[in-house]
Amino acid sequence: MELRQLYYFVKVANREHVTRAAEELHVAQSAVSRQIHLLEEELGVKLFIPKGRNLQLTHAGKLFLKRAEAILADLDRAIAEIHELTDPEHGEVRLGFPHSLGTHLVPTVIAKFKKHHPGVRFHFRQGMYASLIRDVLSGELDLAFISPLPEQEDQLCGHAVLKENLLAIVPPQHPLAGEETIDLAQLKDEPFVLFREGYSLRPIVWEACLRAGFTPKIAFEGEETDTIRGLVAAGMGVSLLPEMALEQTGPLMPAKIGLKDAVTRTIGIIHRAGEPLPLVARVFHQYLLDYFHKEYGPAT
Description:
The longest helix is centred in the first third of the chain and has 27 residues, at 59-85. The protein has nine helices and twelve strands. The protein is of the alpha/beta class. It has two domains: 3-85, Arc Repressor Mutant, subunit A (Orthogonal Bundle), CATH 1.10.10; 93-300, D-Maltodextrin-Binding Protein, domain 2. Helix content is 41%, strand content 24%. The strands form three sheets. Strands 3, 4, 5, 6, 7, 10, 11 and 12 form an eight-stranded mixed sheet that branches. A two-stranded antiparallel sheet has the order 1-2.
């Protein structure tokens, strides 16, 4: 069975006439008739019966028409998707990122990119550290923001783009709330509100506390920066959060305090190694590298 036979069959079925179908296809009537005949022979059924000067679909023809139209529609979509891969202005970028980057960084970057590339679409996926790596490796994502960059992963390419400070956050009524900077050890007796296991910020905070000489006492665990921030503001404990997660303001906000011994996280962008990115993703990736270098400088 040839693809052209499906095209001819669908056109004849819709026009109910071989001559009119041939005219629209810009081929000879005999060519259309021959391909329909060959298709019927291969299927072993009649697809049309004469009805006056026109043709009418048989029951088998009606069933086959639904499938043929679906096949051709899928093919058209596939061709369009392939064209988008080579069109940096109208393709889709599949981008993953952790929850902590979803409130400010990602929306800001996307909005600025869209000003110059309004036709590009984005498919977003928020996830935990391990799931973002897995989705990039499996090909479900083109790119992902991640922190920290994975070590000893030959199947991934990564570029560090931003080094960000974490700040201490305490309830607004806390005795330390008015301080500009503190030693992290000053929070050693406080209950901590942390991300649960599997989130990349948890080990950063945990290890910072250990370096400061104490093991944090966990009072609550959360999955999003908004949850951590809100619980601390409500007096449920203290925590450390990235600066960008504290840029938003609202009715329930904790007090933020700098740390004398800086606690930082490095944010990077990863993609699969050994294969080229789709063109639209390649353009976006280069934009990210240029944007972060211009706005924040080297991530060292």
